[in-house]
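Subject: Interface between my chains keeps coming out wrong

I've been trying for a while to get a sensible model of this assembly. When I model each chain on its own everything looks fine, but I need the whole thing in one frame so I can look at the contacts. Pasting all components below, labels as-is. Any help appreciated, I'm running out of ideas.
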Amino acid sequence: MRERYAYELIQKGMRIDERKFDEFRKIKIRTDVSNKAEGSAHVTLGETQVIAGVKLKTGEPYPDTPNEGTLIVNAEFTPLASPDFESGPPGEDAVELARVVDRGLRESHCLDLEKLCITPKEKVWTVFVDLHMINHQGNLLDASALAAITALHNSQVPKIEEDTIIRGEYVSKLPVVFTPVNVTVGKIEDKFILDPLIEEENILDSKLSVSVRDDDKICALQKMGEQGINFDDLEKMFDMAIKKSKELRKLVK
Amino acid sequence: MRERYAYELIQKGMRIDERKFDEFRKIKIRTDVSNKAEGSAHVTLGETQVIAGVKLKTGEPYPDTPNEGTLIVNAEFTPLASPDFESGPPGEDAVELARVVDRGLRESHCLDLEKLCITPKEKVWTVFVDLHMINHQGNLLDASALAAITALHNSQVPKIEEDTIIRGEYVSKLPVVFTPVNVTVGKIEDKFILDPLIEEENILDSKLSVSVRDDDKICALQKMGEQGINFDDLEKMFDMAIKKSKELRKLVK
Amino acid sequence: MRERYAYELIQKGMRIDERKFDEFRKIKIRTDVSNKAEGSAHVTLGETQVIAGVKLKTGEPYPDTPNEGTLIVNAEFTPLASPDFESGPPGEDAVELARVVDRGLRESHCLDLEKLCITPKEKVWTVFVDLHMINHQGNLLDASALAAITALHNSQVPKIEEDTIIRGEYVSKLPVVFTPVNVTVGKIEDKFILDPLIEEENILDSKLSVSVRDDDKICALQKMGEQGINFDDLEKMFDMAIKKSKELRKLVK
Amino acid sequence: MGHKSDKKLIVNGKRADGRELDQMRPIEMQIGLVNRANGSALVKFGDTHAIAAAYGPRELMPRHKQEADRGIIRTRYNMAPFSVDDRKAPGSDRRSTELSKVIRLALHPVVFVQDFPKATVDVYIEILQADGSTRVTGINAASLAMAAAGVPMTDLVTACSAGKIDGKLVSDLNGIEDNFGEADLGYAMIPSKNMVTLLQMDGALTKEELVTLLNMAKESCKKIYEMEMKVLKEKYEKALE
Amino acid sequence: MGHKSDKKLIVNGKRADGRELDQMRPIEMQIGLVNRANGSALVKFGDTHAIAAAYGPRELMPRHKQEADRGIIRTRYNMAPFSVDDRKAPGSDRRSTELSKVIRLALHPVVFVQDFPKATVDVYIEILQADGSTRVTGINAASLAMAAAGVPMTDLVTACSAGKIDGKLVSDLNGIEDNFGEADLGYAMIPSKNMVTLLQMDGALTKEELVTLLNMAKESCKKIYEMEMKVLKEKYEKALE
Amino acid sequence: MGHKSDKKLIVNGKRADGRELDQMRPIEMQIGLVNRANGSALVKFGDTHAIAAAYGPRELMPRHKQEADRGIIRTRYNMAPFSVDDRKAPGSDRRSTELSKVIRLALHPVVFVQDFPKATVDVYIEILQADGSTRVTGINAASLAMAAAGVPMTDLVTACSAGKIDGKLVSDLNGIEDNFGEADLGYAMIPSKNMVTLLQMDGALTKEELVTLLNMAKESCKKIYEMEMKVLKEKYEKALE
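Reply #2:
Try treating it as a single job with all components included. I did that and got this:
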């Protein structure tokens, strides 16, 4: 029902919630929402809600990057957030979301990983970014990426004494040097929309997720959806994403 | 059928097997029933049978208790023991039973864990108590707790030479200083029964598991079953459990 | 259909593909088929295809064999190879195949494991033999064993510098001292056949897998199938296997 | 319970966070938030934050698990990986398996399961921040979420913790009190019926101490019940406007 | 097999535990014990203790796994965590997966599966104490349990081990002989039909040694068969009293 | 992407393996091989070897997963344990889970799913040797396997990679270029429709670089398409003989 209505409106250049095609829903960002985390952010995108929590743990570096900390992004599609999500290990959609957010952060080099080395070859910080879905009303990916980078910006590095992490005491901010932002462009026939509602997501032909860095460089792409995208439409989609990314980036503090 | 019969009898103050409400079935305890274990016990409670086996392994202490050994209780509802048990990872009932037995042992401080430290901060004994269900005719929990504490009482600490455990040679008894005992009180309407048969378990409104230490202190409680317990009945249930615990404790050697 | 036809032919002393009872299908063996592996072999047995890949990794020795490398055989019944195979963890048939091949290699002492010790008690080579099913047209076990021993014969030991494996550089051949070969004898009523097609496998009463070493010693046996084997038939089956093993061994280079 | 420690949990008759012995932490309750659910609630006991969402009654699948004459309740208690000091690996573990069960049984007595045969009510609890008493905070959130979802219920279930620290009996344990105290009681009840639906204790208590503690918990639950009724009432009044 | 060792397994023609080369350990058999099962048995080969329970024939669920014209047999071989020197983690592993399969196939030939279409016979084997030859001890227990359960069978399956240690062929390996010997044979048969239903060997044997070993195993099985018939007979006589 | 390294990937305008910037590695394609499948293909991009098999359309089980008005496609991307430098543990991981999904969606647009309601087409891809660009090599193999299986399709899907190394834009990354380069593009398209069905990029590129790279990938796909049509044609002609 709602899907059919959304489709007909889009054909006429309109949307259920009266937004423009390139308009995001109202965004609210709260930080420090979980005081056990090294940093956290709660992003509200219209009715969609995601919490990102950052935890640091010491571990071994990868053999090929002995002087660098590591980054792990994980996403939980908690059954709380949608009647369609189920308990159990992450399904392919949760895995994909986590990996796309991960690539956006990783490829933008937003974290100065060398500053997260404790003892070269032996001990580095592992930064866990956990994305927890709270309410799924569409566009979880952009909301998650926004929550992730905001939580990182608000994270601190714990103190270490005699190999033990002193919880609650911090020595510095997490070294965040870029602010990548994710903008997903949805395509339905010849129309392109941003920040789709869940009813709109269900009728999209395809989506293209674009992660854009402060310098307008594109750091990650992911084409989603069951239909193809016309080659000639790609550039337009990049443009929409780059333009909107500037706006979203201003919200990250 | 049997359930209905059990229910009607209980209404009249009677039980299928002619026991009194506060009477346990006949208990038989055999120790040293598995010679590969550091200690073991086979408890027969009427037709219900449980084997507890204790194995010791060296491991690292928890960071917050660097001078103490550790205790792990695990329960297997083997499909052998009941047509209702299935192969596969432990279900919630097996997990709950193991955790309730664990709390009874742990909170009573029945093991002097400091004596199980080998090298502070580095190496301690981990005591595994494995509960193996053999035949389920009701009240697995009390039988399991009895098997666990008896097996611990009969366990020995293996010899270590050059970091290697010498299997079959022992240096001391396991330092057991208390004998917690578990008594589950079943409630059906306004009646309270001990040691329910499986047919009785199926018709109970609720159960309260009470773990009692030698000094009559209560070390663990767990309310089970789908119905609530009247607040004013709790004290009576504690009294029944404490009284019966003295009797059961005498059987542990 | 095909099964019924295969059965009737066998009754008359014939086979679908016109082979004799003790005749294998045409065997083709290619080596070095995966250049990331330390050694590999692709065995084609008629239409049946199996790839074996050998990878070496450093690890700790088992406590009871501190001066010996270790051997691990794993088999993947990839869903690619047969409409009857499914995605997911290995089922009992894959596990059995891997373990039978493992025993044939292990018990024949075909690898001089002492030569795979790097530092006694601390570091040894672990030899992984991964068996990957490509097309299942019967007799995967004999094809797998042949692929495994051929891959081992063609494997090399990587160079180690400062605890790091230098991929692509090798210091020696893997020390293979025997060439065990597996021959499975199928029984259908009073007939015995070798190298069964899949249609024949489906109608066999039972199978006996025999692993034979260069000196004609038998290193592993595994009886398979739902029916028993007459005690008095066993010796005949051993003889068939030993005889055929000499022929197959010539193909291993 | 029972970790040895030199930490003083009570100083000059007051607890480390400044509370009186029988004083609960500040409690906040909010209904709504998860609008995809049929009902949801956020409950905060000090720094412990639990959010719960209720779905259903909805058809239970697969069908062979349906019961012809009654519905079932399913619960999941889950801690966010970032809700604790050392990151918790995602997924269920033995603790969450047990808690999901006892929470289900704590809620069960108030639900008219015979009103929704073949169906299920699913209640999911996420702990976003953990500072002790997470399961009871979660039960309160779950109970409100179910009420907000319109699940047929006789009453609310209210829950709280109590315990013994530094030799004294206290209400509403926080994380440090839970870790270093001598006894910990988890408690839920249906106030209108005087029925206890969750009762877990670990520690070492005389029967007399235990009974006193239970009475403290009962008092706390009464206060919580009032707050819950208030927040529900506000919700309904707002809905009627 | 084949672990290098200086251990002498045979001294002055006798085995380390005092047995003659072709002597089995003391065998005990008991029927019953698990009264929730349709049939059960405990079998001890020296210090190896196996208990088995048989359930069924009972309806196979889920239904799409049923076979219209025959029943199926399911088996599970499992070692208790405390049955071995180093605690075994609970749950199945590759070894138990394989053994569960070969045990099922060892029992299958005696069962009239066509007598219980759409149904299953489930046989569970628990090793409570392991000192070698666990799978064959388990098969004997399973066979007795199935007979006691009244599963339609043509005969019993009997099983034993044999092997080569210190260059000699011996019957019924214990744990040390299994670990440090040169060859290990697992064997099961239907005595009345001279049919072999389990045959596993690892080691390195000439064909002649193997044939000799098989004959030893066959002899052992005959003795075991007599014991099994005796214990079953006693059971039935007792039941008729 | 973006591992720091002193490795020079381009020397004197040529890539380390001697290729020109826009040159693909030698490509081999072969149809058949897995005769148990309805269709299969082996595709080699240099030292990257992928084999794919397609099964179906065949009935989808369990039935409750069937869709009444259309079929579904299932894909599995899997690397052989010996296909990479450090042995890969068997089984799926997060990477293969994601790749299986994007490959399925890359193939989906050409398939007439409405032609096989309630059924599934299963496509399995095994990477036997991995030297970069495994997913796109796998897509080509999958597309050929589906065509060979007679799955109803509008066209082939063709796929290739491109990227940026040492500051230059290049076609068809090998393993080292993938690990130490600056950007990596995975690309699939339906040439006849100019439709992009796979698009993944990691790295850091200006929009202009990206557009150039996409045009390079498009050119590569055209060449691959010709090869694929040729090998299919040969196959059919051979079949008609």
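Reply #3:
Confirming on my end. The mean pLDDT of chain D is 95.
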